User: Fold this.
Amino acid sequence: MRPGSRIGVDVGKARIGVARSDPHGLLATPVSTVARGDGDIVEILSICSEVEAVEIVVGLPLALSGTHTASTDDASAFASRLAALASVPVRLVDERLSTVSAQQALRLSGRNTRNSRTVIDQVAAVIILQHALDFERSAGTPPGTLVHLDEGS
Assistant:
């Protein structure tokens, strides 16, 4: 397992959930929910700097069949914009069902969806990051795919 804190990002249309790991890459915890729009990338990069993150993991919302959707393209474009400004690597990881899992976890803890919208985004980011950490620990290789900047970006 590579040392260092990582940031997990769940990209949504209105909000972005952000989570972080401990410096040993064992446990993901919620950090905040960032409003989508002007300044969102700067705010995420500020969190990265604050926790001295070595990597950013962005959830890639594939369809259950594994095909791309409009949300997949949106998350990929967001990850590319993030990678263009980040001083650390950005990776895309499969996040199928992370929001559904987050909603289930909150429901089991007695919270409803209506009053938990911002928390759902954070919990989804925790689930994405924890899956990435667990994958790396078991496989011995970094999770997902590295976001490469296109020539001329």
